[in-house]
Amino acid sequence: MSFFKRLKDKFSGTPEDVQDELEPLDSDEEQPLEDDQEEQPKKKAPRKLSEADFDEDGLISIEDFEEIEAQQIGAKFKAGLEKSRENFQEQLNNLIARYRKVDEDFFEALEEMLITADVGFDTVMQLVEELRFEAQKRNITETEDLREVIVEKIVDIYHQDEENSEAMDLEDGRLNVILMVGVNGVGKTTTIGKLAHRYQSEGKKVMLAAGDTFRAGAIEQLNIWGDRVGVEVTSQSEGSDPAAVIYDAINAAKSKGADILICDTAGRLQNKANLMNELEKVKRVIGRAVPDAPHEVLLCLDATTGQNALSQAKSFKEVTNVTGIVLTKLDGTAKGGIVLAIRNELHIPVKYVGLGEKLDDLQPFNPESYVYGLFADMIEQNVDESEIDHNEEQSESTDNEIEGQYHEPK
Ligand SMILES: Nc1nc2c(ncn2[C@@H]2O[C@H](COP(=O)(O)OP(=O)(O)OP(=O)(O)O)[C@@H](O)[C@H]2O)c(=O)[nH]1
Ligand SMILES: [Mg+2]
Questions:
Q1: Burial class (CB within 10 angstroms; exposed 0-12, middle 13-18, buried 19+) of 386
Q2: Which top-level group of life is the source organism from (predicted)?
Q3: Whether 342 contacts 352, CB under 8 Å
Q4: How many A from CA of 215 to the centre of ligand 2?
């Protein structure tokens, strides 16, 4: 099965707000075609759980669950990456139309396009070098035939380090401590609210620590998130020592048997030494109270700040052991290539991406869902066209067979 077909089968779906305009899924089942009606490729909305999915014990098969989950994830990435997708698809289509033959001019134009989309210089050079090699190896001469290889290579380049490193280090039977860091306004507090919601709906007992005692209103903001999601927040007054607040929060979390404590911190500039030292102190306090903690230090980066996000990450990485990136506001940029630059140039896995402002708009990062979001229309169109071609070829060969039989002398 082709790479595009696999992605389409796995993720094909439509954002929820468009769903209502589509036929309900049940009617997606085989319908007899009217005589004059040609078979059209079906537009599928992501499946929603219905009673029919559950057996008499109220259980759902793992396959059904995974299928529904993948479609919902696909729809989220597709909606969240809409701006980037318009940009990537349009530019790639233009390139393919302009340079029909695979040659150096095409590769140079492709390099330029990817660099402009924030993919990062080194990553682009590596990606395009691999494409040159692949084109030669497979003897691909038409740019059109390189379309799928380009998307496939983006996934490969992401995976080249370790597989699965985007998984969170969370274990049952211990207090897991997550520390959220980053500069002002990147989305730390919002991400904490979304994460709390996610883990709580997975059945975990989640608590929050209001470690941003610096910015006016920050404690209240976290308390609002706590109320909204229904999780407890430990806080002290504005101006108190963040390390002391987090220490208190750890004790509260231990005594209440929490599974996960997520600690907010003040937005800090990476070049302000005292703020960075304060972060180190917070980390030391956490480490003394819970062995091996913090289990995750998540650095929030705002995708709309492009290359600046990369330099923030480099500075944070120097002073603290960042275990993962949360790339927020991907929905707000047309340059979604920044994901690849971060991964490839910093070797820090992107663990979550922010695809909007709603509670469930924070999604675990996965390179396949990401490229699906970046190229969904192109992938769907490509698969539909090749299915139509395939059907036409089949019906032609059937016609020929019938004709052949007819002419065969008996
Ligand atoms: N569109 C969009 N907006 C987001 C996303 N994540 C966060 N935001 C918005 O970004 C703004 C800043 O979010 P905060 O969570 O307050 O950021 P912060 O890093 O805690 O800011 P400070 O506490 O001031 O350092 C808010 O308006 C959020 O709604 C996202 O994934 N998509
Ligand atoms: Mg905040």
A1: middle
A2: Bacteria
A3: no
A4: 8
Query: Distance (Å, rounded) from C-alpha 385 to C-alpha 392?
Result: 10
| Distance from Cα 185 to the centre of ligand 1, integer Å | 6
Nearest to 150 by CA among 119, 176, 171, 189: 119
Contact in structure between 96 and 143 (CB atoms under 8 Å): yes
Average pLDDT by stretches of 10, the chain with 410 residues: 90 55 40 48 58 72 84 94 95 94 96 92 93 95 94 86 77 97 95 97 97 94 97 96 97 98 89 81 95 96 92 86 95 92 87 95 94 94 81 67 51
What is the strand order of the sheet 260-263 is part of? 232-234, 206-209, 260-263, 176-181, 296-302, 324-328, 350-354, 362-364
In the reported structure, the alpha carbon of residue 331 is separated from the centroid of ligand 1 by a whole-number distance in angstroms of 12
Looking at ligand 1, which residue's alpha carbon is closest to its atom 8?
Answer: 187
Cis previous bond, 242, omega within 30: no
Q: Which atom of ligand 1 is nearest to the CA of 267?
A: 25
Q: Is 266 annotated as a binding residue?
A: yes
In the chain, the N- to C-terminal Cα span, in Å, equals 41
Task: For residue 76, give the 3-state DSSP assignment.
Answer: helix
Flag whether 186 is marked binding.
yes
pTM of the model: 0.85
Cα 14 to chain centroid, rounded: 16
328 marked as binding residue: yes
Tokens of 399: 């016609």
Query: Residue 158 is encoded by which pair of tokens?
Result: 């992401």
Q: Do residues 122 and 115 lie in contact, with contact meaning Cβ atoms separated by under 8 Å?
A: no
Q: What share of the chain is helix, strand, coil (3-state, %, to 5)?
A: 55, 10, 35
Q: How far apart are CA 388 and CA 195, in angstroms?
A: 43
Residue 343 annotated as part of some ligand binding site: no
Q: Which amino acid, 285?
A: V
Q: Kindly report the backbone phi and psi dihedral angles of residue 233, in degrees, each rounded to the nearest multiple of 5, phi listed first.
A: -120, 130
In angstroms, the CA 207 to CA 196 distance is 8
Question: Which residues have CB under 8 Å from 397's CB, separation 6+?
Answer: none
